[in-house]
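Changelog note: in this version the structure field was regenerated for every chain. One regenerated record is shown below for reference.
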Amino acid sequence: MKELELKYGCNPNQKPAKVSMKEGELPFEVLNGRPGYINLMDAFNSWQLVKELKAATGLPAAASFKHVSPAGAAVSVPLDDTLKQIYFVEGVELTPMSTAYIRARGADRMSSYGDFAALSDECDAATAAYLKREVSDGVIAPSYTEEALEILKTKKKGNYLVMKVDPDYEPPAQETREIFGITFEQGHNNAAINEELLSNIPTANKDLPDAAKRDLLVSLITLKYTQSNSVCYVKDGQAIGIGAGQQSRIHCTRLAGNKADIWWLRQNPKVLALPFKEDIRRPDRDNAIDVYISDECDDVLRDGEWQRVFTEQPEPLTAEEKKAWIAQMKGVSLGSDAFFPFGDNIERAHKSGVEYVAEAGGSIRDDNVIETCDKYNIVMSFTGLRLFHH
């Protein structure tokens, strides 16, 4: 098939809409559902991301996409008991592929609500069963087991979008797009992201362990498919905070850092012990946890809104307790899609446990950034590679 008609473009009023190939057949099949314009943009960007993650790390990889940027991305690293609890998968069958997606979705569960999922490897029944229970619009993978496909076909009253991609497909060397009726052309971004990019270390501390290398690769490959400006915090093989599409890099760093803090605060004993009513749905739990962690908590508890989701009024998590808990976060890796212009980005990153950094380098203030890293004994690599994505 060389052409596929879509439901509509970015918005329902943008019709007709379609995708097509100038040469050859479309490199994907729609196994279930009907795609829209944004669905396919998410599918193709997320597929490229997980394919590169798998190639760089050798581990099954997954991504959770919303509006052409990842809400989360991860490789398959086993979950500890605390993560199983905050991801709501206690007692759930886990496989390498499902673990990768559970991690990817767990990075920012609020943003992953209604996501498009991408899997580097075959979708098995365990992954399909997890997808079925979460609010998601579609999935792309190189293949599906018969059982997995049957499970997914029952989701969303039979309308869940399931796409099978040709894993051997490579896009043309030159790519084109039209904006305002004007055709743009550029070379496809085929820059390889591997450990060689991390070898230029200008900081005093040059000790970059294998786990940090893996996490920096996860960060950089995630950024390659994130709307710029963008910054990504990673720990234990998964993104824990992504700041996308900001005009200022420090705002990217703050946004992603705040998300990383929320991910870590979800593991606080007070949060783990919140007295939820048994019939409360997972999205409502996510919302309640987000509010409980936020500065709005006191107002919500005072107004009595807690009664809808909790069996009893929980004890607040104070600002002092949050600060002390966040201070315990360590071993975080941070990537940036371009250079840091000032050391303030490192100052903010340090507050969220960052110990390893990868950025392009090349700022006139590189010396200030290096000095700030040395102040906190942070290891930083200059990759020499900018990763803007628009």
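Spot check on this record: The radius of gyration is 21 Å. The chain has 13 helices and 15 strands.
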